[in-house]
Amino acid sequence: MRWLKALALLYVVTSGDASASPPALSDIDADISAWDLTRASVSVSLLPQGTDRQIKEGVLAVYEADYARAEDLLTRALASDHLDRDAAIAVEARHYLALARGAQRALARAITLVSPDRSVIAVFADPKDTIIAPYLFQAMSAARVALADDLGVTPDHPVRVEILDDPAKLALVTTLTLDNIYTTGTIGVTKYRRIVMTSPRVLLHGYPWLDTAVHEYVHYLVTLRTRNLAPVWLQEGLAKLFEERWRSHGPAELDPAAARLLARALDRGTLVTLAEMSPSIAMLPSQERAALAYAEVQTMLTFILERRGPAGITRILDRVAAGDTAEDALGIAWGDTFDHFMANWAGEMKRRTAGAAGRETPLRQRRFRDPDDDANTADPSLLGDIFSHLGGGRARQHARLGVLLTLRGHTRAAIQEYERSRSADPQARKDPKLARRLGELYLSVGQPERALPHLDLAASDDPEQPILAAAQGRARLRLGDREGARAALSRAIRINPFIPTIHCDLAELALSEAEAARERSLCDE
Q: In the 8-state DSSP scheme, what is residue 129?
């Protein structure tokens, strides 16, 4: 139907006076920014031949992911003798030429797959990452249904998702620098009518990549819904609010570490301002400041949803799309001024996070691995003095000996030392790190009934640890708890689908022969 829309628009544009002026470049820019590429394409076709038209065609080609054509058009336009090198349109041409070239470098060996419902085009920079495609497609399909009502928009075209195999490539295809990416741990960006993400394979512990994909999809929808008029803070607040909607009915809960950061900032008056969040949270000076910014905007939008319901979110989006500032739109949805809302939000958040400021809940840092390192299942958690928190007594000594024996492959001897550690000190008996070590070892020697209580204790402290979730899934599967096993393994997949044993167990839980065959092909004990 897109050709019919284009034909209708062409009729509207050309049915007037033939001597009418060509469309203004600013109007074309507004349509491109709003991702209304059909209208923008028709308008560009009405421009007179010349460098302006060539540049706008090149910009459109970037948004259409036709990177080679974009490079050709923009290179020829920049070589023109008629182009003012200092003009804004020349600066624009150089910007998009760099993006077109960067995208071709980043995706030189790319493999493209299309979802079964044809709503997602996934482009993988490295063929190794194509194993995540089925899980990505399932999550995006669920998000498409759930978010259609929440945000009031559904794309009329396939959503392009580019999965990169190196954080440096994210800098090639966005406006971020490599320093921005490493400083804040940025792994996803939605810009130029596509979602760009780093593969979980190239992070040391993986990351919640499926929630991130949906987080970026929310950005995509908000851009369409508001014609790209929503500022960064509103975009990020909505994305955090709805990033788990594909798997949960309610809004995403605030992470305990983020709650601690928010509590301390409210107490000390060190919140990240909305102005500081622009042009990107990825440009903040640390992962802590970025996490705080996300906590602020997530709780702001959650507060609106709780107090004003879904209609409050709809009203904000409607008003922003109509041209109101996001602050005024939120105030209207709240029923008072934006400042009144902020005062109420701050007071409520102080109450909810009371006590969190004093808790030592560490922020999970995102650490990138060497993209050429294939040791994706290596567990770095055994390295270093991991039991220093147990103090200097016998419990710590036995635990440290357990680590050394584990590293040398003396599993049963390691189990004995860990049990001695638990017997030596009541603190060690409840320690989640020790519980994890012991649970994994009991599982490895075929004692899932002894492993599971330890694994559950450890997982309650660190639910986002994929190796631990995989062990939980296996223990529950061995004990006949198929639903519990599926839940734990799904959690592991959401964070690091490159742990081969996950797929061995998922093959046993498969609901179809095709699914079982796929998981068996990825299984490696």
A: G
**Which region among 205-209, 221-225, 361-365, 492-496 has the lowest average model confidence (pLDDT)?**
361-365
404 pLDDT higher than 50: yes
CA dihedral sign of residues 504, 506, 508, 514: negative
Angle made by CA atoms 222, 224, 229, in degrees to the nearest 5: 70
CA 494 vs. chain centroid, Å, equals 11
Domain with residues 111-358, CATH architecture: 3-Layer(aba) Sandwich (3.40)
Could you read off the pLDDT of 9-33 as tens digits, one per residue?
A: 444 444 444 456 889 999 999 999 9
The Cα-based distances of 358 to 14, 296, 350 in angstroms read 66, 18, 13
Delimit the domains of the chain by residue range: 2-13+22-105, 111-358
Q: How many residues does the chain have?
A: 525
Residue 298: CB partners within 8 Å, gap ≥ 6?
236, 237, 240, 241, 252, 254, 258
- What DSSP character marks residue 131? G
Tell me how far apart the 2 most distant CA atoms of the chain are, in Å.
92
Cβ 172 vs Cβ 102: under 8 Å: yes
CA distance 94 to 77: 10
Whole-model pTM over 0.85: yes
| pLDDT above 80: residue 378 | no
CB-based contact 442:450 (threshold 8 Å):
yes
**DSSP track, 5-45:** HHHHHHHHHHSS-TTPPPPPHHHHHHHHHTT-HHHHHHHHH
CA angle 420, 424, 426 (to 5 degrees): 120
| Residue 453 to residue 422: CA distance in whole angstroms | 14
**Structure confidence by residue, pLDDT tens digits, 443-454:** 999 999 999 999
Count H helices and E strands in the chain, helices first: 24, 5
The letter for the amino acid at 393 is G
Structure tokens at 44: 């560009």
Per-position DSSP letters for 143-192, written without gaps between them? HHHHHHHHHS---SSPEEEEEES-HHHHHHSSS--HHHHHHHT--EEE-S
> Which residue, 286, 269, 287, 278, is CA-closest to 233?
278
**Quick check: 97 and 117 in contact, CB under 8 A?**
no
At 365, the pLDDT band (50, 70, 90 cuts) reads confident
